[in-house]
Amino acid sequence: MKNQSNLFIAKNSLTLSYLLAGFIWTLTAYFSIGYRHGDEHFQILEFAGYLLGVNQAADMAWEFHHHMRPTLQPLITAILIKGFNTVGIVNPFTQMFFFRLFSSVLLFFALFRFLKSLQLHKNPVAVLTSYLFCVMPYIGARWSSEGLSASMLLLLISKLNQAKLLKHFFAAGIFAGLAFAFRFQAAFAIAGTVMWYLFNYKFNVKQVFVYALGALGVCFVSVVCDRYFYGQWVFAPYSYFYENIVLDKASNYGTDPWYYYLLHLLSDGLWLPGGLFLAALIVFSVRNPRSLPVLMGWMFWLGHTLVAHKETRFMYPVMVFMPYVAFVIYDSLSKNLLKKGIAYVMVLANIILLIPHIILPAAHEIALLKYLELEYPHQKFTLYGSGQSNPYDDYGLKNVFYGKKQVTFIGIETLPDNIPNPALFISYRCNKDGQVDGKYRYKKVYQVYPQWITNHLNWFNWTSRASVMTLYELESVN
After folding, report:
1. Are residues 346 and 387 in the same domain?
2. Are residues 328 and 443 in the same domain?
3. Most exposed of 10, 185, 305, 423 (fewest Cβ within 10 Å)?
């Protein structure tokens, strides 16, 4: 009877773990409006707009003209947008929610397959650790090349972990090809799978052949997509390498030292938890030097370290392995006071980092743009703000997918004497409501942070120092 009771509790705990994870991932997909980086928008959604005839070639990012971006994802995006329009879902913000939800479901499934291949899918602690790791729901909500590539790499590992038959290697090759087709840098991680095979298998020509066949088959489809999109035969991976590495154009967006990613693992992980996580990663790598996550992860890191331009988002495709690493090392520790202390520190830090990823928009500018497009009554208006705060124009490119209204944006630091009506002002301070500037009074109409946070959780008056994108109407005081 006691065993049955324990089994019932275990099953309920597992079910609740998956339900909680699914609920949080759905919330994140709903609230994570916008994009982590402009590439997520201008080289996917606006590329899709070009396919649909909404954008002209002159509207596109410079990478378009050099034929250096993969087009499989923009093509999928265009097909789905056309499908949404056909069934009456024409609101771009609603469409984008479904894209984020689809990406989340894909990563959720890929993570389940990954845990199942390791026999951890029925362990509630492993499930919660993996699904509620601070950035995991956020990565899931990214309809980006990094997000989809992360899902494909997890499915690749899952298939290779259980590969016995030729069809398993062929399927793994397809996932490898898709990971590369969505994001070319996945080639570094795929190189890790080659090392893993050579370390752990006796060389089998048939296995290698079908793995390569699956990957090259997807690459061929990707090249055909590029031909359709760009209107000529191109090999986008080479163009990408030539422009960004040979001509070093990537460095125009900044350069960083080799230890950039390790430093950000510490700083973004609140230092002490980040340090514990780095220690777990090193210990796991030493203990399991021939494992797939280790070889794929470190090869991916090494490849990106050799490139001068670095961004944290570049690590998303392999960051999804990290909760598994942390769980294995923590689970191997002896039960004592230190283990409990580590658990409390890591759980608290994870909650602190997780909550903002759940409830805040990914891009403040797009959250503000959503308000202007859906809630603000005027079709034409003047928008004032600093030179970089125009939500309708980012990176020097017009946001066609979301922006439908006719807006005149004027970049200023101080208000002029005469302002056409209606007029709005964008500020990065949320505490200007009621203040007077010259002839005009600020009236708050929207802020990207939920109002209850700034009203009721303004501890130590942090809102006077924090950057919270806020929209004000300008009212004449005369």
Report:
1. no
2. no
3. 10
Range of the domain at 324: 2-359
Q: Mark whether 42 and 72 lie in a shared domain.
A: yes
**Cα-only R_g, the chain:** 24
Q: What is the pLDDT of residues 51-97, one digit of tens each?
A: 999 999 988 999 999 999 999 999 999 999 999 999 999 999 999 99
How far is 256 from 367, CA to CA, in rounded Å? 30
Q: Which of 301, 326, 359 is the last residue of a domain?
A: 359
Question: 337 and 382 in one domain?
Answer: no
127's CB contacts (< 8 A; 6+ apart) are 14, 17, 18, 21, 115, 120, 121
pTM of the model: 0.93
Residues 348 and 381 in one domain: no
Task: Answer yes or no: do 250 and 389 share one domain.
Answer: no
Phi-psi region of 434 (alpha: psi -120 to 50; beta: other; left: phi over 0): left
Q: What's the residue count for the chain?
A: 478
Question: What would the 3-class secondary structure string for 321-360 be?
Answer: CHHHHHHHHHHHCCCCHHHHHHHHHHHHHHHHHHHHHHHC
23 vs 142: CA distance, rounded Å = 17
Number of domains in the chain: 2
Q: ω before 422 within 30° of 0 (cis)? A: yes
- Per-residue pLDDT tens over the stretch 256-308: 998 999 888 888 887 888 888 899 999 999 999 999 999 999 999 999 999 99
Phi, psi dihedrals of residue 264, rounded to the nearest 5°: -70, -30
Domain final residue, candidates 297, 329, 359: 359
Per-residue DSSP letter, 43 = T
**One domain, residues 340 and 411:** no
User: In degrees, to the nearest 5, what angle opens at C-alpha 151 toward C-alphas 185 and 274?
Assistant: 75
